[in-house]
Every structure is written in C-alpha cells, then in structure tokens.
Amino acid sequence: MHPIIETKNLSKSFKQFKAVSDLSFTINHGDIYGFLGQNGAGKSTTMRMLLGLIFPDSGSIYIDGEEFNNGRRHLLSKIGAIIERPDMYGYLSGWDNLKMFAALSDSSIKANRLHEVLEIVGLKGREHDKVKAYSQGMKQRLGIAIALVHKPDLLILDEPTNGLDPQGIAEMRALILSLSRDHGKTILISSHLLYEIEQVATSMIIIHKGKKVVEGKVNSLLNPDETFIEIDILPDDHILQKINASEWKPSLGSIKQETLTFKMNPERTPQLNCWLVGQGVGVTEIRSKHSLEAYFLSLTDDTVITNRAL
Amino acid sequence: MIQLLRIELYKIFRRPRTYISFGIVTAITFVIQLAMLTDGKGFVNFALSGVNEQFDIQGNILNGYLITYIILQSLLIHIPLLVALVAGDALAGEANLGTLRLLLTKPISRPKIVMAKFLSSFIYTVLLIVWLAVVALFFSLLLFGKGDMINLKSDSFIMILQNDVMWRYGLAFAFAVLAMTTIASMSLLLSAFADNSIGPIISTMGIVVVLTILSNLELPLFTIIKPYLFTTHMIGWKGFFDDPVPYAAIGKSAVVLFLYTIGFLLLTIVYFNKKDIKS
C-alpha cells in the first residue's frame, strides 16, 4: 500500500524568505501524524502545499501514490481539512454551511450524512443557529464536520485546538482519537500544544526554519524510560568541563544560560544532584519536563547549546 | 458548475448587505420622482427655455419616459459602485473572511470558481438593472403618466413618440447590463489581487471616475486614447434615444465592452489559477 502522503524535496520561498526547504516526509495510512515546529517554521505553508493552496517552488507531493498536480481535484476528494481557523459564513446557520460545503465536496451527499457528522462532532441540536453565534469550540467542531462530511481518508488539521478552553481541548483530543480509532481516518495534525500532540500522535515530524529536524514513530523518538530533567544552577564557568569529564556527559542534552538539561532515567536524578553538589555546583531547582516539550526545545531552540554541538 | 453557481447565488442573496444596493436604487429613484412631482414643471420649463422660443410644445412633457431618462442619467454613474460591492467582494471578501481557503480545499478547479463568481456577479447585475427598470420606468409611468418623450441634447432635441419609446428602453437596459458586466469583471479581477474587499471596491470606483474624466476631456492627447477606454463606450445606451438610432456606433461600443469583459475575466482566471492562498 502506498503512503497516504509522501513529499519529496518540497521547497517554497516568499521573496527572500525560505519558508520550506527540501522537505521530505511520509505519512502512512492510519497514522495520527504530529506536525511540530515553532511559529513560522513552515508548518502551515507545508499543509497549504498539501492542499494545493500554495504552489511549491520545487519538489513533489504524492497522495495515495498519485502525484498531486496530476489529480488535484480527484485527490482533494480524499482529504478533509481545517487550515488555521475554521472560518465559515457567519450569516448562515451551521447546517447551511455544512450543506453547502458538503455539496461542493460531493453533490450526492444526503441529509442523513449531515446529521451523522453533526452527531460525531457533538453539534446536534445547535445546527440551525447562525454560525456568528457559535463559540470558538463550536466553530472548530463544525469545521471538523465539514472536513469529515464527504468521508475522506485523510484529515489535515492545522492547529485544531486554537482558541479552545481546557475542556474544549480535552474534547477535541477525544474526538481526534475517536476519528482515528473508530472511523479509521489518517490524521495530520499540527499544534503548538506539544502535550496535546504527545497524547494523540503515533508518528511525528519536527521542522525548524523550514527544514526537517527529525521524523519517526513517537515511541521510538520519545523513550518513556528517558525523561528530560532540567536543573537550574548558580553561575559556574567550569560546569561544561566538569560534566564532560564525568559519567554524566552522555546524558547531557543542552545548556542554556544557567539551566542544564539531561535526558536520562528519572530514577537517577538524586545521584546526579549529589554529584553536582559534590562538584561545588549550586543547584537551585530540579524539575522534570514533558518529554516531547523538552525534546522539541532541544531540537529547535537556537539559544540552546546542544550536546551534539558540544 | 450549476451547483457551484447555485451556491454562489445562495451566498450573495442570503447576505443582508446585498439588498443595500437594491435599497439605494429604490431610494434614489423615489427621491428623484418626488422632486419631479413637486418641482418638475419648473425644471422642464427651465430645460426647454431655449426651445420654447422657437417651438410650441404641447402635451404631457413631464411624463414617465422623461423622468426615467433623467433617473438613468443620474444613476448609471453610481451603479458601478453597487456592482463593485458584490463583484469586488467575490474573491477578496472570501479571502478576508477566511472561507476562500476552505473553498479551495474542495475538489473544484479554480477557473470554475472564478467562472461561478463571475456568473453570479452577472446575475446580480442583471437583477439590479431589472430592479432599476421596474422602479424607474414602472413607477415613473404610474406617477407621471405617458407622453411623447423629449430627449434634450446640447444643440438639438429629439421628440420620440410615446408608442416608439418602450423598445428603446428595453435595449438601453440591456446595454446597461453589458456595461455593468464590464465593471463587474474588472472588479472581480481587482478582487483576485486583494485580501479584503475595500481595496477592489474603491479601486473600481477610482478607475471608473478617472477614465470617465479622461473620456470627457476634449484634449488632443486624450482624443487618441478615448476610443479604447471602456468608459467612453459605457454611455452607448443613450444612442437608443437618438433618431435615427446609430446602430453601428452602439454595436462598436458593445463589442469593445464585451472584449474588455472577456479580457478582465481571462486575466482573473490566469492570475487566480496561480495565486498562493496565504490568507
């Protein structure tokens, strides 16, 4: 079976700004694929290229084995998407919006399918209200209903939790998991809420300044036995030499000002603390970070000195 | 395509602001009719003061046909703005609203979307002109009655018998539809370049005003370019109230307007087909 999405050497510039550079990645059927990067890293540009909203300067996009440019119309019928905000016609009801976009996706879609997707996203009972009266969460749900209505194989969701309150975020997470598990959808999802991605994604890619930094299965990239431990210390000019000469060198992830980040088994934290204190280092705080967040920052924060650079 | 057109029309006519144009046309028409009801005779006497010295004109001069002609002369300058309100908003308004990206992720080709936007703007333009015809002609005839129509020109006047007028209005309104469709297509082109509808609407009016001024300036430099400006040909409808009707000149104006319309539409399709949607 072909990957549902495969990009090869995708590049896009806006005047002098290189938004995406030589980006290749693969998404397999059934994946929930997390697309991570800082603001301006090129996530939205890439997603727009996958949907034909932005034309790449070079490179290719394959959807289900078929080159996008050769079958744009037919391939778009396999995709449902929300890009950035789920903007709709506020002066129309949710039902009217859904019916209209459903007709544009597939003119044979019947009313019972509209009821079905409204049920899935939990908007039943509010479908005849004007969209301008909807909350952000309701708009997101309607956006997903529109993305789902023509039964696409692939959902592209760009920041689907934007503007949602904590309960809305949790509900959206449950919905995404249900769409994957119960409805068999492949989902490409970007979010700046790394914890949310960590909760749902099976595979992921991290891009930085338009380039791929890492791609793979979440399980293999984030070893549950290795946590990121951040340690704040008092200024010490020789800390790097001390660590490099010790058994802790392989565990050192990065040094940012007076914060040391180690990737290690959390059970060894007391030993590390004892060693630092023994070396005369003033330890002021120790904390464990969400693994994806720390991993992400270690790869994308330009102000950090990474172990690889050391 | 039919489905897409139906959806475009649905969006246009479900939006309250679409009806502002119809309201404006109605309001201005009624204001002119009211003014003519109260002070029309004085206006006609003043307009015919030079003619009355040489001719004895009898009958209902201040009739519905003359009032409609006056309304058309006043309104057809402003209708481009009303057309631009919809056509200028067609692509740019969707970009501003954010719905353009959702629309373009659906399995429809971009040229089809442009064509649907153009056709829906055309239908709106037709309805606006038809509405103008109804409120101007129908109510003017109702209020002022029938009579022979005087078409007063700068150096002459033409008397058109009342049973010879209606077909002229029919063709004049049809010509106005063509002229306003040219405006709609230009507005749609400007709309493709923008991400909010204010720019295309103002630009449309700016272009119409500037080119209309150039069309009316009797300077040698502008005389050369005048025949190529679409604004020169937009007033071709007046030819239907001449005697004899200058069909060749009207036909030439219609061809120029048609070519401009097709040109603007093709440019819109070519540009929009390659446009990166960043909004």
Structural commentary:
The complex is a heterodimer of chains A (310) and B (279). Chain A has 310 residues and is of the alpha/beta class. Chain A folds into 2 domains: 5-219, 3-Layer(aba) Sandwich (Rossmann fold), CATH 3.40.50.300; 227-306, Alpha-Beta Plaits, CATH 3.30.70. Helices cover 33% and strands 28% of the residues of chain A. Chain A has helices spanning 43-50, 72-76, 94-105, 111-121, 136-148, 166-181, 194-200, 218-221, 239-244, 269-278, 291-300, and strands at residues 5-14, 17-27, 32-36, 58-63, 66-67, 79-82, 154-158, 186-190, 203-208, 211-217, 227-233, 252-256, 259-264, 283-289, 305-306. In chain A, strands 6-7-8-3-9-10 form a 6-stranded mixed sheet, with helices on both faces. Chain B is mainly α. Chain B has one domain (2-274). Chain B has 13 helices and 2 strands, in the order H-H-H-H-H-H-H-H-E-E-H-H-H-H-H. A two-stranded antiparallel sheet of chain B has the order 1-2. In chain B, strand 1 and strand 2 (157-160) form a beta hairpin. In chain B, helix 8 runs antiparallel to helix 13 (247-274) and helix 9 packs parallel to helix 13 (247-274). Chain B is elongated. The model of chain B has no long low-confidence stretch (mean pLDDT 86). The A-B interface holds A 14, 48, 51-55, 72-77, 79, 81, 83-89, 91-92, 96, 100-101, 103-105, 107, 146 and B 3-4, 7, 10-11, 14-16, 97-99, 101-109, 274, 276-278.
